[in-house]
């Protein structure tokens, strides 16, 4: 009797597995449909609430890393989205973080190293096509940003013709194609210059130290008494501490030389002399986590968020060696950021961090 019951149960399980196997495509499709409906229906940045929000839409560097897009930082205030640098893959990361490229009010470039601009064409296209934009993507930067804009506009000109012919002017208005450049003068050393001031959001640019890139800046974003600062690329510089004074959050680039030297030695052993040379050269125009912590301490910020991480960290426990002794140099929190992280700063200064990646 018991053997008979077990036999029946086994047969039923086998049948169930068989049905699932036969139906697996339709089950997968219905799960897909539910996921897509939930994602498209989900309120996104409007859900973030009051205060100033710092979003990490690309925490990688030029070194290949599938889990981190190229450099990208965003600030959200009053339901408005501002993006700082657009590395490769960053517009996709913005999208899956619930920060629609169509909603980008303005982009600010820290400098024109390729890894900071190579996602710009894709972002401009999504800004236009996904949002039926009436005006181009507004991109601010030091002198030279016009060349960047012209180059991308030319590169995408043929594609724009296809899209308008296919979807019509209501879906992709001709006036919304491409990038409009807003160049500003490099601020004087040790000074911050207001480059954007509208409806309560104020953005200041300040010069950083990234020679031979002479026109490199960082930005300070202010809203309702709260502030975040993004360094762009720099070596350790009092210019950052000064510009970030008493800010809530400092988002700093970081390079860990102990790890880049391991990479460099491995490259040498494998006759990849170019890579070895580059690993050597980049040390002199970036900050170490320890130096970033020192700048954060000097600036008296609440928290330090490390991004533009060099080298990539394929395993989570590598954040320890990456940080080294940085925590000794700063009294506040230090975070090694991941793509999808959002730090929210409430009007009273309370800070919370969470990850928002949806896929
Ligand atoms: Zn860079
Ligand atoms: Zn750079």
Describe this structure in words.
The chain is α/β, with parallel strands linked by helices and 359 residues long. It has 2 domains: 1-41; 46-116 and 136-142 and 181-355, 4-Layer Sandwich (Metallo-beta-lactamase, Chain A), CATH 3.60.15.10. Helix content is 35%, strand content 25%. The protein has helices at residues 2-22, 24-41, 90-96, 114-117, 120-129, 145-155, 157-167, 238-243, 257-269, 273-281, 289-299, 319-323, and strands at residues 52-58, 72-77, 80-84, 104-108, 137-142, 179-184, 192-198, 201-207, 217-223, 226-230, 249-255, 303-310, 333-336, 341-345, 351-355. The protein has an 8-stranded mixed β-sheet. Strands 7-8-9-10-11-12-13 form a 7-stranded mixed β-sheet. Helix 9 (257-269) runs antiparallel to helix 10. The chain is globular, with a radius of gyration of 23 Å. The termini are far apart. The relative contact order is 0.13. The mean pLDDT is 92.
Question: Can you summarize this structure?
Answer:
Helix content is 35%, strand content 25%.
Query: How much strand content do the residues show?
Result: 25-35%
The CATH homologous superfamily of the largest domain corresponds to: Ribonuclease Z/Hydroxyacylglutathione hydrolase-like
Q: Using the alpha-carbon principal axes, give the shape.
A: globular
- What's the total helix number? 12
Write the layout of secondary structure elements.
Blueprint: H1 2-22, H2 24-41, E1 52-58, E2 72-77, E3 80-84, H3 90-96, E4 104-108, H4 114-117, H5 120-129, E5 137-142, H6 145-155, H7 157-167, E6 179-184, E7 192-198, E8 201-207, E9 217-223, E10 226-230, H8 238-243, E11 249-255, H9 257-269, H10 273-281, H11 289-299, E12 303-310, H12 319-323, E13 333-336, E14 341-345, E15 351-355
Parallel strand pairs: 3-4, 4-5, 5-6, 10-11, 11-12, 12-13
Antiparallel strand pairs: 1-2, 1-14, 2-3, 7-8, 8-9, 9-10, 14-15
One zinc ion is lined by residues 111, 113, 210, 213, 233.
